[in-house]
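fold-stage: in
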Amino acid sequence: MNRWVVISLVLLMGLSGCMVSKSKYEASVADMESAKAELEKSRMHQEALEEQIRNLKGLNEKISTDLEMMTTEVQRIKEGRKNEHTLLETRERELDQEKAQLTSKLRVVMDQYQKVKAQNKALKETVLRYQKELKDTRESTAESAVGALKPSDKPGVSKSEPTPPGSSSVAASSKPPAPKIVTPPTLPKIGGDLVNINKASVSDLVLTLGLSREVAEDVVSNRPYRLRGELVAKNVIPKATFDEIKDRITASP
């Protein structure tokens, strides 16, 4: 403060060239103090502005960093959604393909079911036909047996005619033989166990598998079979016939 007073006095003396009054001196000192206070106030205000600028710069840097992080996160979310959309489209195509395959398999199964149903119907009709034939055969056999048991009446021969000597043995030998009773074979059960192609009879193969008698005889004559497929390998039955009966036969010993 003394330095500013001396400087002010020197300036006043230099300007006026003479001594100044006490009032002017005090006024000058007051002006100097006021100027000094304003200068200090301006300096403090400048420091406050500089501090505020530094704070704003720090806040700006923080906002810039947050904005960059948010931009990166938004980009990551967009890429994630794009990848999920691609995965969903791929999965949808896979499901469509699986649906088409299942539909095709269902169609094949339905066709096989219709074939099996038709085969079952034909097999039942075959069994009924053979049952009728066996019944007719049994009835005709019984009728033949009853007819054979009746005594034969020869024309021109009297019952009271004496029997010549030595003719008893001839009469005994001319007696008709007892009829042979034919027992019809037992029908196998439809839909039961698998038919063993190494053990089944010709009639069983005809009744249960619907084969013709000629084919059934070929099956029996070409035994034994280690595998079912040998029916085709040995040219016993065609491949188409084998495909129809392969699920109902076995070649186990």
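fold-stage: in (second)
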Amino acid sequence: MTAIILIPARMASTRLPGKPLTDIAGKPMIAQVAARAVESGVGRVVVATDTPEVADAARAEGVEAVMTRADHQSGSDRIFEALQTLDPGRTSEIIINLQGDLPTIPPEDIRAVMRPLEGAQTEIATLGVEIEDEEEKANPNVVKIVGAPLGGAGGTRLRALYFTRATAPWGEGPLYHHIGIYAYRRAALERFVALPPATLEQRERLEQLRALEAGMRIDVEIVRSVPLGVDTPADLERARQILSSTGYSR
């Protein structure tokens, strides 16, 4: 299946102003994220932004960039506009939405998000990791996956039934942290962005619940590492330490 990785990026962050252009190990954050995407080898990589400086930073690293409107409410809306511009011939069958604030994501995890789409019934794929830190289980900023194990996937895959900021499911057994990267079949993305915001989506502030409320199937590949999402100055310093220590300070 032909895939394209689209990285939505906007400058209007309240907690970390100018986030896509902040320096991490000698490169703007958006360039580090794009580098991880290129290293994955999955397919074409394009940054979708509403800010010329972000587009310039991507292009300076040899990565494509496309300008989009500034009024998008979500990254999925932004990548859909970009897709229509970039691929009017509809050659891309799989669209990966990689958040522009995940500079430490392993390239192998970007590859992993496509695996659930090997199942013909899966419309959207995403990633999860087992929670080991007890504090994270009760942290509303850590989104949990409530899912049913899929027996034919060697214990590494779930069918998503719900996503929540609460501690769930109840009882003995693992809890899973959701990682915000998605792989859509093209028709699924088209359907998703046409749906109105859903009740549970608005209550939990989790966009993926819109798809589940509409009866769309989301499967989750379980991986071993949680990439650092950079939302605060403290996150930024941690990302700088991680990438400097792993050889990305170039």
